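Journal club prep, shared notes

We agreed each person brings one worked example of a sequence with its structure written out as tokens. Mine is Polar-differentiation response regulator DivK. I'm keeping it raw so we can talk through how to read the token line rather than staring at a rendered picture. Sequence first:
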Amino acid sequence: MKKILIIEDNEKNLKLFSIITRSLGYEILTAENGAKGVAIAKKEFPRLVLILMDIQMPVMDGITALNMLKSDQRTAGIPVIALTSFAMAGDRKRLLAEGFTGYISKPIDKNQFLKSVKKTIKVSK
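Then the structure, token by token:
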């Protein structure tokens, strides 16, 4: 089964994102920090269709985790959407320049969230 990995340190957000993405029919994997997320991605990479990643997390932030994923040939092609409360002008552009496939600001709009996830999965196939 194809899988989506959600890396988010806020338990309520993690639960919400899991419920929403599970409605798309994918198995959902979760991690509460970038280090655990990278480890899961390396283990599950052939079946991962998408990673949703928070930016500010303990242990390892989202940008560092993204760089680790992009530097590994096995996980480099997995699309990664930044989930962030950074909603200032220029943040979207900066995160996309870092190598994220997409950007979703928190708090999320459920419909826009689903639309972004579906679009990213469709484009990456």
